[in-house]
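Input/output pair, single chain:
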Amino acid sequence: MPSPPLIRRATATDIPALMALVQRVVPLMQATGNFQWNDDYPNAAVFQADIDQQQLWVAELDGQLAGVAALTNDQDPEYADADWDVTEPAVVTHRLAVDPAAQGRGVAQALLLQAEEVARTQGLTVLRVDTNSENAATQRLFPKLGYRFAGEIGLAIRPGQRFFCYEKRLG
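Output:
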């Protein structure tokens, strides 16, 4: 039986592997019509800022970086358009990605479970995430992990694209 992903905080030494991961993920995203990420985003500066704020987590499988997620409290202004109370503090998952070679091995699920741990540590009971409307994989995953669909929004930073919002409340 394969070992579960190891989840840990990212460090600056992870940035080259993170950028290589992005280079493997972006063409696959774009091939499905998902243009949320491109050659400019996410970049090393974005990941470094996440690391500096202690909010970037990575998953390792067999000693190799297999996934990433920024677990923040940042809610985009457009989140006010979703079916939730945007004034309520939440742990928000951003920049979730899994290496194509590691897909189907529980990496995204492990990172989302880490979001629950971060929320508990912060005394919060709400988790939020948005995903590109073209990302069928996450639209299947989030409900399986107890997230409810909370509406569709646009984001000013990604004009012309639509994003589906999901929320989970911890018991």
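The helical segments are 15-31, 44-52, 107-122, 136-144. The CA atoms of residues 80 and 86 lie 5 Å apart.
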